[in-house]
Amino acid sequence: MTMHASFKRRGAALLALAAAATATLAATGSADAVPAHAAVQLTTTKPTIVLVHGAWADASSFAPVAHRLQHDGYTVLDAPNPLRGLSTDAASVAAFVNQATTGPVVLVGHSYGGAVITNAAVGIPRVKALSYIDAYAPAQGETLAQLTGAKPGSLLAVADPHTVFDAVQDPSQPQGDQDLYVKRDLFPKAFAGKLPAGVGAELAAAQTPIAAGAFNEKSGTAAWQTVPSWFFIGTKDKVLPAAEQQAMAARAHGEVVTADADHLSMLEVPSAVTKLIEKAATSAGGAR
Questions:
Q1: How far is the C-alpha of 186 from the C-alpha of 107, rounded, in Å?
Q2: CA 120 to centroid of chain Cα atoms
Q3: pLDDT digits (tens, 9 = 90+) for 8-36
Q4: CB–CB of 284/47 below 8 Å?
Q5: Buried b (16+ CB within 10 A) or exposed e, 111-137
Q6: Is it the case that residue 62 has pLDDT exceeding 50?
Q7: What is the arithmetic mean of pLDDT over 149-178?
Q8: Contact by Cβ (8 Å): 87, 217
Q9: DSSP per position, 118-153
């Protein structure tokens, strides 16, 4: 028998087997006929976790959390947050979600990133949960400056901003908006008092500035009005007081977890932060 004839016989056998399987499925007319492995795939798909960093930071602030989420089988992406203004930054994150992800998404925002996801998630049905990590969750019309000083305790809410910020004129800003940096000697105390002093100094030196105008830009429609939310609150937060975070979580009807941590809780207690995000992800339809 030639090799060509052998392949033809094998092909005919495979076609006959496929036809028989198709007939069996049609005869049952039931979802029970779906192979077991296919059913498992349908029920174990996890949502994509999109991380949005805050002001004076970059994606590396989420690195310990991202590592844990990836270890647990999640697709983790860092969205761009240019820190130029609330509406423009939210538009950047929304475009990223719409174009760079598929399926259900959990948006996670730290600090200023919380205000960004509050605006970015509006109108994107695939965003199934919001996770706020020591973060702003503004209502429509509120500003970051307003929320920072709403409750006592923030080291950044002072009468004279020059005592806590260093300003650098950004020549690319047509309206003369300034870039703000937290003073290097204040940064470790305000953001990460529980981290080693050397780490705090490194974080202070590596700041990514935020445009000053972002603090006074009014927030738009709040996604937490319709999207379930989870809040991780560091009780020692000296940037956004825990009492204000609790108030924002209460009006959003969000689930709250607290820990003895500062504003950069992702670096101080990454396991606890990861657990909260995974709880939100599970609620969004992803299996553990």
A1: 30
A2: 11
A3: 343 444 334 334 433 433 333 433 333 44
A4: yes
A5: bbbbbbbbbbbbebeebbbbbbbbbbb
A6: yes
A7: 89
A8: yes
A9: HHHTTT-TTEEEEEEES---PPTT--HHHHHTSSTT
Q: What is the pLDDT of residues 175-233, one digit of tens each?
A: 678 999 999 999 999 999 999 999 999 999 999 999 999 999 999 999 999 999 999 99
Handedness of CA 189, 59, 256, 199 (dihedral sign): negative
Which one-letter DSSP state was computed for residue 184?
A: T
Residue 169 CA to residue 175 CA, distance in Å, equals: 11
Does residue 187 sit in helix, strand or coil? helix
What pLDDT is recorded for position 60? 96
Tokens describing residue 103? 């399926």
Residues in contact with 136: Cβ distance below 8 Å, sequence separation at least 6, in sequence order: 111, 112, 114, 115, 118, 144, 147, 240, 248
